[in-house]
Amino acid sequence: MKFTVAIDGPAAAGKGTIARALAAQFGFGHLDTGLLYRATARRVMEGEEALSAALALQSADLRRDDLRSAEVGQVASRVAAMPKVRTALLDFQKNFARRDGGAVLDGRDIGTVICPDAEVKLFVTATDGVRAARRHAELSRKDAALTVAEVLADLRARDRRDAGRDTAPMSASAEALLLDTSELTIDEAIEMAGAAVIAKLPI
Ligand code: CDP
Ligand code: CDP
């Protein structure tokens, strides 16, 4: 069975949390596409050229330490604005999306570019303040000293770059269900996303 759930939205809106839960609930594969850009960024920070870095990615790159840091996130959003990098990562994501047994992908351009035919499309949002508070509460050791205001500035800079770039900008696909998680518990958000999947599952 081919069945794709595309989850997009700004930083720290809850995309990954929902994606992991849906994958577990329905037995689908899960790909956090942000990790591809973060792992590419990590290689670029070590001096590698961006396209070579993207082409050289191995699964071990996706398990490296500190991919979640704010610094790697900023470099990731710069690297992600380069068309050659996005092109290099396209086939892997498209193939994952159409794998047998179902797939959930979360990122910025899943419903618009990677899988425009996805059976379910969600655009997950939350207010800036809520997103900054959530990300602040889960900061990696490296970023532990950051204030909520600094986290907010970091997320906003990334969102602006991600929404403003020419190639595959972050945007809600016309068919996407908008899920504002600002006032939702994690369980409520997962429940609503799960209902959207169940409504589209083949019987
Ligand atoms: O993947 P994305 O950057 O969109 O966000 P995430 O890493 O899934 O979520 C950011 C943080 O918000 C995590 O610590 C979640 O536990 C928390 N959270 C949430 O995702 N949804 C809620 N309704 C409440 C909190
Ligand atoms: O977890 P968070 O939402 O903070 O970020 P992420 O999903 O790990 O993505 C890191 C960066 O990768 C984003 O700020 C985007 O610039 C880029 N990205 C992208 O351009 N396209 C995707 N499908 C996923 C991530």
Outline the structure in words.
With 203 residues, the chain is an alpha/beta fold. The protein has one domain: P-loop containing nucleotide triphosphate hydrolases (Rossmann fold, 3-Layer(aba) Sandwich). It is built from 9 helices and 5 strands; from the N terminus they run βαβααααβαβααβα. It has helices spanning 15-26, 34-45, 50-55, 70-79, 83-97, 110-114, 128-137, 148-164, 186-200; strands at 4-8, 29-32, 103-107, 120-125, 177-180. The protein has a 5-stranded parallel sheet, sandwiched between helices. The termini are close together. The mean pLDDT is 97. It binds cytidine-5'-diphosphate (2 copies).
Kindly provide the radius of gyration, computed on alpha-carbon positions and rounded to a whole number of angstroms: 16 Å
What hetero molecules are bound to the protein chains? Answer: cytidine-5'-diphosphate
CATH superfamily: P-loop containing nucleotide triphosphate hydrolases
Q: What global shape is seen? A: globular
Instruction: State the domain count.
Output: 1
Q: How many β strands by DSSP?
A: 5
Structural class: alpha/beta
Q: Kindly report the spatial arrangement of strands forming the biggest sheet.
A: 2-3-1-4-5
What's the level 1 CATH class?
Alpha Beta
Number of helices in the DSSP assignment: 9
Helix content: 40-55%
The unreliable regions are none
CATH 2nd-level architecture: 3-Layer(aba) Sandwich
What are the secondary-structure elements, in order, as H or E?
Answer: EHEHHHHEHEHHEH
Largest sheet: 5 strands, parallel
What fraction of residues sit in β-strands?
A: 5-15%
Domain Cytidylate kinase: 5-192
Protein name: Cytidylate kinase
Catalytic activity: dCMP + ATP = dCDP + ADP; CMP + ATP = CDP + ADP
GO cellular component, one term: cytoplasm
